[in-house]
Each structure stands twice: as structure tokens, then as C-alpha cells.
Amino acid sequence: MNAIELCGLTKKFGRRTVVDGLTLSVGEGELFALLGVNGAGKSTTIRMLSGVLTPDAGDARIMGASILTELQKVKSVINVSPQETAVAPNLSVFENLVLIFGVYGADKAAAKKAASDSISEFGMAEIQNQRAKTLSGGWQRRLSIAMALITQPKVLFLDEPTLGLDVLARRELWREIEKLRGKMTVVLTTHYLEEAEALSDRIGILVSGRLTAVGTAEELKKRAGKANFEDAFVALATGGTEA
Amino acid sequence: MSFFAMRNLKEMLRDKLNLFFGLAFPLLILFLLFLLNRNIPAQAGMTLFHLENLTPGVAVFGLSFVSLFGGMLIARDRSEAFLLRLYSSPLRAGDFLTGYTLPLLPLCVGQGICCFAAAFALGLRCSVGNFLLCLAVLLPAAVLFIGIGLLCGSCMTDKQVGGICGALLTNLSAWLSGTWFSLDLFGAAGKRIAYCLPFANAVDAARAAVGGDYGAIPGKLWIVAVYAAVLFAAAVLVFSRNRSSGRV
Q1: Is B86 within 8 Å of A103 when comparing Cβ atoms?
Q2: ipTM, two decimals
Q3: pTM above threshold 0.90
Q4: From A111, A145, B61, B73, which residue has the greatest number of CB atoms within 10 Å?
Q5: Chain A residues with CB inside 8 Å of B2's CB?
Q6: What tens digit of pLDDT does each residue of B8-54 get?
Q7: In angstroms, rounded to a whole number, what is the distance separating the alpha carbons of residues B74 and B247?
């Protein structure tokens, strides 16, 4: 069974079509990267799939539930780590985790237990009582992802998870993301080519709201006739005009 | 209280600036004006700063900071994408509104209690019944200021909220409430305008409660209640529209 099925998903802002008839399937347990330059429509796609934005046309099914007609069902099986760190600044790391688990319907005891487990899993014991606003960018990102994972979603959306991080913090986060492979379906948006190539099972290249190519990094390189992924991306994103 | 409402309460109480402006600043004003009043000769006939007049005014003035707390919290949640994260959670529209509103109500009541406790310590004479009535009479004003905060937070940046709620609203509610000086000084037209707004009516209703002039309360309170209902409804409308359009 596919975890995600997009069928002609479209979003317009005024006259501008930001996502244009996106049709795509992502398998259960797959780590899928949506790759594109700024403004390609990656975040808008994630916002539609997570029920924040309503599509203007088309539909998507997540674990079999429609984002148009069964949104609450969809929301109960997904979680999102937005592009910004999106943590509660005056709450501690522990309290942030308890909050998110509670918001998804857990009782206080279960939320505290899940938060403790998450803190151990993400190696955050030393900072668990620290307020989120005092954490470094890398720790805030890690907390943001832990908050998205604590509800054990079937589908996880990571919107530009390493944006603005230094190389070391990025690599550390990659290791966390790699651990998710096979455990849940992950859709990752990024404009870092090496990130998409290193982490994902398949990559979809999004250009001006349209999906121009989908495949593994090797398949995309072969299709573009290029030896490295950056050249392949440029060729596929520009239709060969910049290659 | 829900997880979300509890989070909002913690966010506000842990902000030291909030605590200063919401609690310490009105108490400081009360104390300073109390001292000022002691130096005004009785022959001057100036009763504005007598505790039974001053305390309800300061209590209403203190409530205006609640708009700032609520507005800043929502505006920051929008700008830092925290709301975006919550929009994709199973929380429903009603959960958001109660989550932002509920923690502010006990803050308002707590603020009123602190203000009156300080006034009692300074020598305010008011029965317990009238004090409790005054707290109840302050509730529509509390809803009014919560509504203004919710409205501003839903459509402004945190800097704009700081300007509108922190500077403009607090000044407006102070100047046009008749707490610091008599509204007669504005002239007849100015006084009429002030009484078309909710602030002076809220203060008068609270003063009537403290003074046991129960008959005067409804005539003032309904104006505050209408403003509170309209502004709160506008806030709910704007917030709900933002949410359904995915605008953060």
C-alpha cells in the first residue's frame, strides 16, 4: 500500500499557480525527498498534505484518508517539523515534548512517559530542563524533529530540516533522519542537493510547482546523462538549457 | 485546562516583562498616586485619587496589559511557525480559541485581586461583598481586552502588537477612563466621546460596585459588554479565517 497518493494536487495564490497538478505516490516506509530551488512549491505541498492549506484542485490520500474529506483522520496519523524550528520558547525541552503529545490526545501520564523516552532517544537528557529559546540552532532543530516524532506518526513531513545549520549540526541531524528509514514514511523537502542524495530512497524534482522528474539519485543521474547529482539536477530542473 | 491552554499560561507567566507590566506596574502606579493624594490638601476637594476611586481605575488600566500579553503570544506563535505546527495537529478551531482565552481570564482575576489587596493594605474601605462584585463587574472589561489582544495578535506582527496594544491601547484606556484626571477637562464633546468608548464606563461600573451604588452598574456595564462581544467576535472571525486559509 502507498502511504501517500497525490492526484492532480494544485494550489494557486491569486493568479500564480504555486503547485501545479502534482501526481505522485510514496510507498510505506519510504524516505522521499522533494527537491527544488526556493519558491518551487515544496513547502506549499507539505502544507496541503498536512491540512494547513486547502488545495484548489486535486486531492491526496494519506494512509488511505483524503485530505479533503477526512482531514481529522489524516491529522491523527501525520506529524510535521516545519521549516522554522516552531518550538514553544518559554517551555523547557521536556515541556515542549509533553505539550505536543498532549495536543494529539494523550493523557498527562502518557505524555510524560513519551517525553522521557524521546529525551533518551534523542540524547537530550542534559538539556531537558532548559528553556527552548536558550538552545542553539542545532538543538532547537533536534527538538523540533523530536516533537514531530513523539506522536509516532505513520507519515512524517520534514520541511527543510537542516536549513541554516552548520555542517556538523547538519550531519548530526542526518544521522537522526537516517534512523527513521523503514520505520515510517518520511517526506523531506530540501534545496540541499547532497542532503537529498544522501538521505532519500527516491527524489522528486519540483520546478515552478511541477514535478519534472522522480527516481533514485542514480536513476536521475542516468536519465540526465550526468556523472554527478548536481549536474543532473541542473539539467532536469532547467530541461537541459543550463546543462 | 488543556495542554495548549496550560502552555499559553506558562508562556505568559514566564515572561518577566509581562509580569512587570501586568502586575508590578499597575501596583506601582497605585502606590505613587496614593502618595500623591496624601499631599493634596483636603480643601482642594480632589477625590479622584481617593482609594475607592483610584483602585477600580487602576484595576481597569491593569487589564489593558492583558491585550499585550495575548496579542504578543499569538503574534509570536504565528511568526515563529508554532501555530503552523499546531494547525497540522488534530486541534480544532474551538481548541485554539479557548486555549488562548482561558489562561488570560485567571490572569485578569489575579491581577484584580492583587490590585485590591494592595489597596486594602493602603487603607481602602470596601466590604468583601462589594470587592467580589467589583471583580465580577471587571469581567466584561477583561473579555474586551482579551478580545483586542486576540484580534491584534491574529492580524499583526509582534512589533505591531507591541505598538498598538503596548503603547496606544494602554494610553487610550488610561487617558479616556477618567482614572488619572476628570473627563470634564476634555470639555463636553470630549467627555461624550470618552463615554461612547468602553474604558470610562468600565471604570465607572467598577467604582459603583466598590461604593455599593448597585443601581448605577447596569447602565455602564452594558456598553462595556457590547464592545467586548463585538471585539471578541471580530477576533474569533479573523483567527478562524486565518486558520482556514492556512495564513500564519
Answers
A1: yes
A2: 0.89
A3: no
A4: B73
A5: 102
A6: 999 999 988 888 888 889 999 999 999 998 888 888 778 888 999 99
A7: 13
